[in-house]
Design goal:
Strand content: 5-15%
Number of domains: 1
Number of strands: 3
Largest sheet: 3 strands, antiparallel
Order of helices and strands: HHHHHEEE
């Protein structure tokens, strides 16, 4: 492939990525391991809280049974430890879920900043002079890999203002 044609292919792909920031958002989500939707997180949080409340009721009933003389101290302590163990497991799952929610918020912020960046530079792509094209290619493309008839463009997309002058988030596009 002649160099001029190759350059045009890479530039056209870069323009396509900038015009469709939803592609970047999908790749960011994939890279951050975000598989759950917010509704699923809320449902999971509610079910964990409900399960923990059920365990608290079990402790209350168990204590009433012990105080009423229905079960002995050893049995009470054994069952109480089992319930406390399950409660700790649910609390651990809740903490993990809260961390996922935090990561989800970070991801949403990063996606918003990427979309803003794409909107800011999109208008300048159409008639960009060579120098501007070169600067954008240097900033946004990590590497171009050519194998046989395939061209793979690996992008680095700024996710905040300070990274608009350096590389940060990697995005792959295969052809």
């Amino acid at each position: 492939m002649p160099a001029g044609q190759f350059d045009e292919l890479v530039w056209a792909d870069l323009c396509e990525v900038i015009r469709h920031p939803e592609l970047i958002a999908l790749e960011l989500e994939r890279a951050w391991g975000g598989q759950w939707m917010p509704e699923e997180m809320q449902a999971r949080r509610a079910s964990l809280r409900k399960a923990r409340a059920g365990l608290e009721r079990q402790v209350e009933r168990l204590t009433e049974a012990y105080l009423g003389g229905v079960i002995k101290l050893e049995e009470y302590e054994r069952r109480r430890r089992e319930i406390e163990s399950r409660t700790e497991a649910f609390q651990s799952q809740e903490r993990e879920l809260e961390q996922q929610v935090g990561r989800r918020h970070e991801l949403a912020g990063a996606v918003g900043r990427v979309e803003d960046y794409c909107r800011r530079i999109e208008d300048s792509l159409a008639g960009a002079p060579f120098e501007q094209r070169r600067r954008l290619v240097e900033l946004l493309i990590d590497r171009v890999i050519v194998t046989d008839a395939e061209v793979e463009v690996r992008y680095v997309i700024p996710t905040n203002a300070s990274s608009e002058h350096g590389r940060f988030c990697h995005l792959r596009t295969n052809y």
